[in-house]
Amino acid sequence: MDLGLEGRRAIVCGASRGMGRAIAVTLATEGAAVTLVARDRTALEETASLVRVRTGRDAAVVAADLTRDEDRQRIFAACPQPDILVNNGGGMPPGDFRDWDRAHWIAGVDMMMLAPIEMIRLAVDGMSERGFGRIVNIVSRSVKNPQAEMGLSNAARSGLVAFSSGLARQLVARNVTINNVLPGIIDSAAQHAHVHDLSRMTGRSYDSIWAERAAANPAKRFGDVEEIAAAVAFFCSHKAGFMTAQSLLVDGGDYRGLF
Fold first, then answer.
1. Sheet holding 60-63: strands in order across?
2. Are strands 9-13 and 60-63 parallel, antiparallel or unpaired?
3. 9-184+224-245 domain in CATH 3.40.50.720?
4. Residue 250 parent element (H or E)
5. Residue 50: enclosing H or E segment and its boundaries?
6. For residues 22 and 231, is the Cβ–Cβ distance under 8 A?
7. DSSP 187-234
8. Residue 227 and residue 128: Cα distance in Å, rounded?
9. For residue 189, what pLDDT is reported?
10. Which of 2, 170, 223, 233 is the most buried (most CB within 10 A)?
11. Distance from the Cα of residue 87 to its chain's centroid
12. d(CA 252, CA 183)
């Protein structure tokens, strides 16, 4: 299937590892010119090298903290007319809400809700004027299946999805869409870090938690980062222009609800 991404310009956040790296490589393979964003420049250069090896294309690199306005401005200086924006980034560690004070909540909302919204704000007007735009937020299954220990993520990421849903309906007539991908258990660096956190919280071994999570999933395995990247690439394509304000679970069937 031709996704129509040849020559499109994409900003991929969180591109230094895991799902973000896989998304960047996949979009570049489909012909997009990618600008890679994360805080770790060394890891970003590794992603850029991988893009060059896999696709023969170069990739721009911007080391930035998305919670900082000046850093967001630098990203759009490097890619001033993006056709595609992939909002993706880390989250807050699991814990007990009784241990979180106001500073924890503000940090979570700033990282997982306000920073992506600011990136959207900087992108949408130009996309609308040019008549093409694809925005994809990588959030979490927790927005549909909240987990108590992930309260900060439940709240902030749900806020991003709710905001995006309202805005998406204002933009789709201009061929600008906003959709969300909700990963389940994915074999990524972030997932390994999460399981280590759960191990410290519970006193159980890392290996036992990892194996238990795989066994509990209907697919009996963790997902691959490339499976997330494929879903994102379709949402970014010209084929997906009639899909907006949608939240796609990529979770091996773990969510048990109908809607």
1. 60-63, 33-38, 9-13, 84-87, 133-138, 176-183, 247-250
2. unpaired
3. yes
4. strand 247-250
5. helix 41-55
6. no
7. -SHHHHHHHHHHHHHH---HHHHHHHHHHHSTTSSPBPHHHHHHHHHH
8. 29
9. 85
10. 233
11. 5
12. 9
Q: Give the C-alpha separation, 159 to 181, whole Å.
A: 15
Predicted pLDDT at 94: 86
> Using one digit for the tens of pLDDT, what is the confidence trace for 33-90?
999 999 999 999 999 999 999 999 999 999 999 999 999 999 999 999 999 999 999 8
Among the listed residues 32, 34, 26, the one whose alpha carbon sits nearest the alpha carbon of residue 5? 32
- CA–CA distance, 175 with 165 (Å, rounded to integer): 15
pLDDT of 258 reads 87
Percent of the chain at pLDDT exceeding 90:
90
Entry pTM = 0.95
Q: Residues in the chain, how many? A: 259
Which pLDDT band holds residue 190 (cuts at 50, 70, 90)?
confident
Give Dmax (Cα) for the chain.
54
What pLDDT is attached to residue 235? Answer: 98
pLDDT digit string, tens, across residues 99-143 = 999 999 999 999 999 999 999 999 999 999 999 999 999 999 989
Residue 160's alpha-carbon distances to 155, 166, 247, in angstroms, are 9, 10, 11
Picking from 78, 80, 84, the residue whose alpha carbon sits closest to that of residue 58 is: 78
Q: b vs e for 34-46, b when ≥16 Cβ sit within 10 Å of the residue's Cβ?
A: bbbbbeeeebbee
The answer to whether the CB of 157 falls within 8 A of the CB of 139 is: yes
Helices (H), 110-149: 115-130
2 burial level (CB within 10 Å; 0-12, 13-18, 19+): exposed
With tokens 């997982």, the residue in question is: 112
